[in-house]
Design goal:
There is one protein chain. The protein has a three-stranded antiparallel sheet with strand order 3-4-5. The protein has a two-stranded antiparallel sheet with strand order 1-2. The chain has 29 helices and five strands. With 764 residues, the protein is mainly α. It is elongated and about 125 Å long. A hairpin with a 2-residue loop joins strand 1 and strand 2. It starts with a helix and ends in an 8-residue tail after the last helix.
Length: 764
């Protein structure tokens, strides 16, 4: 900021700009309200079908969001300009006041060009008018005056240039549309950028020279600003990708020295998470500099870093441990994953893993005792598990696939490789479980997010998901396309073997099956693939999953073989049937017919699941009847899950045993509102006997196969009686007495399916 530019500054243009932005903000606020309260609200309530239910509604939601972002960006720009204008006016006043004080000591300032100025005497004593007394000053007065002017110009320059910087960064955030970055004034935005530059300087140092104090300061800054768009982009682009990876590897390498300070270990652990989230935020920027950074990071993936730390890892080996955390740009994750898969395929050789081997001691993951972090595919799968849109895109059906997945060419090559061809090796720490494969578990997490539209560890009811908060059904035709592939693969002849050799995926497969229980029932409801029942099983979204009748039977028969997946899908099936009955009171012949079909189809699905569970228990424990009975006893305890169910937004969150957010099953409901049938199930009290059994289910829960079947039939009968109780007018229906036989036949049909259809138990 030049002396005269500030001294004689005319802020009329800036004032006009502020007025324009104030008017723009006011107008956009009205448009934002209209978009939310009228456009989106009416769209949410509209009973649309076909493309309107998906394409139009999605467009409306996106448009409403753009209006909100436009208002946020305009408001932020107005605040920054207004704040900067106020600061510059203040600095101008300070400058003129300082000049006035200088005149009292016969001092003034003049520009020298190129931003410089000089302090001179205002009136030379030799040229003063006759009789005029010229004020005296010392060299100290000159120095003080000069420093005061210089400090004012420095602050004004900082205000002006930082405002220009943050406004440019703000506008560059979104290539199309608007940024949702919000700042209350220039100071807060400028501080975020300044803190980013300060933090970046630490990463440019040799990681071995970093003190615990510096590392703590870095973590504190990253933790504070990790979700700040301007901070994240400025931070990332100030450090070359290679240097960033070298820094983390150097700090995190456990072999820097034995007996390392436990405080340093904790700081390194926090750095992994904070750095990962910050980089994820940075990738959401569309600026040219960030796009270049992402390209360099992807290109760096297969290359060795050329360092002594962590066994000289590849870019993949380090970055995959950072992207476990954070919300990343979908395109970046897919480009990264495509490159990683291609490299991994070339090195997928038995007993020659490039990642998990005796000479690789590059332990760079601090957050899972069963995962040292040496296999970058595991970290990448975790990243997909936290980024649903990216994972759905990564596993999307190939172009040209038909209405249903019924041949290998309909399956995404990434999915085929990861589930069938890749060699996954366990990678536990010394304290971990060498029989548990964290990579397979992470693959399940990625598939969960790809099929459900939720981060695998999100809580859809409380919104405690830092990436995609909120509730409701997130399924789309694209997520259904991934689910169809999963059902095809795990319902195939190889399915039982895949499930049992990938037992770490059982909980994820159960959650996926539960998430699509309405579409599975729909596929079971007809005669073969004909006369499917839309009345009992209406589509909850456009482009619903099409499993085919045989595909649905096959998939359920495999899910039923595992205790965990059986429990998850059975609970979802029971809850969906109850919600369907709540939605179909006996007020019309159509409702009664649909209620009948919902119950009989649900009974058939339950029969398939239960029969598979019995067969697998008998096959697995063929020489130990007591253990087989205990296994069935545990499988019969799924009903206890009802006490923890939470319903809202057309979905139910069902807790698996030992439930955390990651163990919640998100299942569809037939209606958005909850009726008495569902409330009775989720409100029941678990008796003391069950509580005691739950404490040591392995020892106390025992159930023979006959008792197991009887319990299943009894629960279906209980549902029927509850519906009669809620609908006493059913007595007027001439054929309702046939329902008992129909339900029994449905359960028996499902139970007999696996004798001539479905998949046989695994005998390995």
């Amino acid at each position: 900021m030049d002396l005269d530019s500030l001294r004689f500054a005319n802020f009329s243009d800036l004032d006009a700009a502020i007025t324009d932005w104030e008017q723009m903000v006011a107008k956009l606020k009205i448009l934002q309200g209209d978009a939310k309260d009228n456009l989106k609200a009416k769209s949410d309530k509209a009973d649309w079908a076909g493309d309107n239910a998906t394409v139009t509604r999605a467009f409306v939601d996106k448009t409403a969001g753009e209006f909100a972002d436009a208002h946020t960006q305009a408001d932020t720009i107005k605040k920054i300009i207004t704040d900067t204008r106020g600061e510059l006016v203040g600095y101008r006043a300070q400058l003129n006041a300082a000049i006035d004080r200088g005149l009292k000591k016969n001092l003034t300032v003049r520009e020298t060009g190129e931003g410089g100025f000089t302090v001179t005497m205002n009136i030379h004593p030799d040229r003063a008018a006759k009789g005029t007394t010229v004020p005296e000053h010392t060299q100290g007065d000159v120095d003080t005056f000069r420093d005061e002017i210089q400090n004012i110009l420095k602050n004004a320059t900082e205000s002006d240039t930082s405002a220009a910087k943050v406004l440019t960064l703000l506008v560059d955030q979104a290539e199309h549309g608007f940024s949702d970055a919000s700042y209350k004034d220039r100071d807060s935005a400028a501080k975020a950028v300044a803190e980013a530059e300060k933090a970046a300087k630490i990463l440019k140092k040799d990681p071995h020279d970093i003190s615990l104090t510096e590392l703590n300061s870095l973590n504190t800054t990253l933790s504070t600003y990790k979700n700040d768009p301007l901070f994240a982009e400025r931070f990332a682009t100030q450090v070359e990708p290679k240097k960033l990876l070298e820094f983390y590897a150097g700090v995190a390498d456990p072999y820097q020295g034995y007996g390392r300070d436990p405080k340093l270990y904790e700081q390194a652990k926090q750095l992994q998470k904070n750095l990962g989230i910050t980089l994820g935020t940075a990738t959401l920027s569309d600026s040219d500099s960030m796009q270049g950074w992402e390209s360099k990071m992807v290109k760096l993936g297969p290359e060795r870093l050329g360092i002594d730390d962590a066994n000289d890892p590849t870019g993949f080996g380090v970055m995959s441990n950072l992207i476990r955390f954070g919300d990343y740009d979908d395109q970046f994750l897919n480009q990264y994953g495509d490159t990683l898969i291609a490299y991994d395929k070339d090195h997928n050789v038995e007993n020659q893993s490039p990642w998990v081997n005796n000479w690789n001691n590059g332990d760079l993951n601090f957050w899972d005792k069963n995962d040292r972090g040496r296999d970058p595919m595991t970290g990448f799968m975790q990243a997909l598990g936290h980024n649903p849109e990216a994972s759905t895109q990564f596993f999307a059906q190939p172009e040209g696939a038909g209405d249903a997945v019924n041949k290998d060419s309909d399956v995404n090559e990434h999915l085929k490789y990861l589930t069938q061809d890749r060699i996954w090796l366990a990678d536990p720490t010394n304290d971990g479980d060498d029989k548990f494969n964290a990579g397979k578990d992470a693959l399940g997490h990625a598939l969960e997010s790809a099929t459900t539209g939720y981060a695998y560890d999100s809580d859809p009811m409380t919104g405690k998901d830092p990436l995609h908060p909120g509730s409701g059904d997130h399924r789309t035709a694209t997520t259904a396309g991934v689910m169809e592939q999963v059902a095809y693969l795990y319902g195939s002849e190889k399915g039982p073997e895949m499930l049992h050799k990938q037992s770490e995926l059982a909980d994820s497969l159960g959650k996926m099956g539960a998430a699509y229980i309405d579409d599975i029932d729909y596929s079971l409801s007809g005669i073969g693939n004909h006369a499917l029942d839309d009345g009992a099983f209406p589509a909850k979204y456009e482009g619903r999953a099409n499993f085919g009748n045989e595909g649905a039977v096959n998939f359920l028969s495999v899910l039923g073989q595992n205790e965990t997946s059986h429990g998850a899908v059975t609970a979802a099936q029971h809850l969906y049937t109850l919600s369907a009955l709540d939605a179909l009171p006996a007020t019309s012949e159509g409702n009664i017919d649909s209620a009948h079909d919902a119950m009989t189809t649900g009974a058939e699905a339950r029969g398939i699941l239960d029969h598979s569970r019995v067969q697998q228990a008998e096959t697995t424990y063929k020489d130990d009847t007591d253990q087989a009975n205990k296994s069935l006893g545990r499988s019969g305890d799924w009903v206890k899950l009802g006490a923890g169910v939470v319903v809202g937004g057309g979905i139910a969150a069902i807790p698996l045993p030992g439930s955390t957010a990651a163990a919640l099953v998100v299942a569809p409901m037939a209606a958005d509102t909850v009726g008495d049938m569902v409330n009775t199930f989720i409100g029941h009290e678990v008796d003391k006997a069950i509580d005691d059994a739950e404490q040591d289910a392995t020892e106390k829960a025992q159930l023979t196969s006959q008792e197991f079947y009887n319990k299943g039939a009894d629960e279906i009968g209980g549902t029927y009686e509850a519906y009669l109780k809620e609908n006493p007018k059913m007595n007027d229906a001439a054929d309702f007495r046939d329902w008992t036989q129909d339900l029994e036949n449905g359960y028996d049909l499902g139970s007999s399916q696996s004798d001539h259809r479905g998949r046989a138990p695994f005998k390995g």
